[in-house]
Amino acid sequence: MSPAGLLSVLCVLRVKFENAGAGLTGLGPERHVAAMGREKPSFMERAIAEAGAAGRRGEVPVGAVVVDGATGNVLAAAGNRTGDLSDPTAHAEMVVIREAAAGLGAPRLDGCDLYVTLEPCAMCAAAIGFARVRRLYFGAYDAKGGGIEHGARIFDQPTCHHKPDVFGGIEETRCGALLKGFFADRR
After folding, report:
1. Are the C-beta atoms of 142 and 60 separated by less than 8 Å?
2. pLDDT tens digits for range 108-124
3. Maximum Cα–Cα distance across the chain
4. Mean pLDDT of the region 95-103
5. Element (H, E) at 95
6. What's residue 186's pLDDT?
7. Which tens digit of pLDDT belongs to each residue from 46-90?
8. Where are the beta strands (DSSP E) in 55-182?
9. Crossing angle for the helix pair 43-56 and 172-185, nearest 10 degrees?
């Protein structure tokens, strides 16, 4: 396992340990109690919901959410739309990066976090780097098409100008089950 992969596993385990007694779901900063004293829903839960909606539309069920790291506000949420838009680049990550950047009126998402249900491909990983995303949280690993921990390993390349903090395996079982169910139904 690479040092980055080991660090990711250790961070996930630390967060799980910290929250074991709190009864909170999800991983990442959204799992903490909101300022008003109410538990906020998990941002990964929102990404999973977007993935489910994409699957019901006949798209590969991948969902993504961009969150302002300072405020916890969701800036964009979407599922895959490649078929819907007849656009091979309309992966969930690309859709939310475009929407969040347009909403902010800036080409970079400094201080923003991205939650996605599947390890981003090389194209999306490069866009994440170009957008200067602060933290990337992803669900299922993708041994065939992933570009973070598998395949091109974009953030490990010397030509990569920005590497976000990466946390993989968040709700991995649920995220993987969405994909497996989708493809099983098509066989």
Report:
1. no
2. 999 999 999 999 999 99
3. 47
4. 98
5. helix 92-104
6. 86
7. 999 999 999 999 999 999 999 999 999 999 999 999 999 999 999
8. 63-68, 74-79, 112-118, 135-140, 165-167
9. 0
- What one-character DSSP code corresponds to residue 26? S
Owner of token pair 């010397």: 158
- Name residue, tokens 């900063």: 29
Q: How far apart are CA 127 and CA 121, in angstroms?
A: 10
Compute the distance between CA of residue 54 and CA of residue 49 in angstroms, rounded to an integer. 9
For residue 42, the 8-state DSSP code is P
The active-site residue out of 45, 93, 119, 171 is: 93
Residue 42 CA, distance from chain mean position: 12
For residue 62, give the 3-state DSSP assignment.
Answer: coil
172 annotated active-site = no
